Amino acid sequence: MIPLRDNIPSSRRPYVNYTIIGVNVVVFLLEVASGPRLGDLLATYGFVPARFLIFLGQGAVAAAIIPMFTSMFLHGGWLHLIGNMWTLFIFGDNVEDVLGEGGFLFFYLVCGAAALILHVLISGGSAVPLVGASGAIAGVMGAYVCLFPGARILTLVPIFIIFTVIEVPAYIYLGIWFFLQFFQGTFSITTQGAVGGVAWWAHVGGFLAGVGLINLLTPGRAVNPLKWFLK
Q1: pLDDT at 193 (0 to 100)
Q2: Cα(97)–Cα(163) distance, rounded to whole angstroms?
Q3: Of 81, 91, 103, 154, which alpha carbon lies 20 to 30 A from 18's?
Q4: Residues 163, 1: contact at Cβ < 8 Å?
Q5: What percent of the chain has pLDDT over 70?
Q6: What is the pLDDT of residue 194?
Q7: Closest C-alpha among 119, 41, 50, 114 to residue 76
Q8: Quick one: which of 30, 14, 26 has its CA closest to 105?
Q9: What pLDDT is stored for residue 226 in this prediction?
Q10: 3-state SS of the chain?
């Protein structure tokens, strides 16, 4: 399912959301321009779970933590970048509208870090560099479903070789997305030992962090998404 737009207009221009998107695009262009040095760049600034644990064990906290944030602005290809930035474009403006510029930036970075922590818990022995904004964006999606569960998401749905466009409630769209990540993450553990491939558990961790954090930051406004599924 590919989200096309939602029906919740933001009351102000989401400057931080636009800036995050712009920084990701610029960094990716620098990746493309790096040529044969790209592998070294990803290894240095990507997040490597095994290296993270080694640095923590040595007490090198800064060396362990910095790649958590630099990795959020790296991507593995054009489709990876476009998919992430389009999703952030759709859902990020409304979350920034609620949290404000500084609050949204804090929220985004914390969700991205939380996503990586869960990935470490599942795949701590992996030496594969993890790159991408998916964990942080999953947090934005978790916040969105708590703040706007009844919003309508215009969605492109492939049915075999035919594409159709339907409008679904946010709690349905994002609920399906979350359970797909959870299922894929569980499947990856049983078939691949949780090493390599898509970081499904980072998506799960980011989403859950977004749900929890938005409820802490906006008490009384955010709703428990389970309320909508149990109706």
Answers
A1: 46
A2: 32
A3: 154
A4: no
A5: 91
A6: 44
A7: 41
A8: 14
A9: 61
A10: CEEEEECCCCCCCCHHHHHHHHHHHHHHHHHHHCHHHHHHHHHHHCECHHHHHHHHHCCCHHHHHHHHHHHHHCCCCHHHHHHHHHHHHHHHHHHHHHHHHHHHHHHHHHHHHHHHHHHHHHHCCCCCCECCCHHHHHHHHHHHHHHCCCCEEEEEEEECCEEEEEEEEHHHHHHHHHHHHHHHHHHHHHHHCCCCCCCHHHHHHHHHHHHHHHHHHCCCCCCCCHHHHCC
Can you identify the CATH homologous superfamily of domain 2-229? Rhomboid-like (1.20.1540.10)
By CB atoms closer than 10 A (0-12, 13-18, 19+), residue 93 is buried
What token pair was written down for 5? 């737009």
Distance between CA atoms of residues 181 and 46, nearest Å: 21
Q: Can you give the pTM of this predicted structure?
A: 0.90
151 near 7, Cβ under 8 Å? yes
State both tokens at 184: 């894929």
- CA 193-178-181 angle, to 5 degrees, is 20
Categorise residue 195: left if φ over 0, alpha if ψ from -120 to 50, beta otherwise. Answer: beta
Q: How many CB atoms lie within 10 A of CB 151?
A: 19
Q: How far is Cα 214 from Cα 210, in angstroms, rounded to an integer?
A: 6
End-to-end CA distance of the chain: 24
Give the amino acid at 160. F
**108 close to 63: Cβ distance less than 8 angstroms:** no
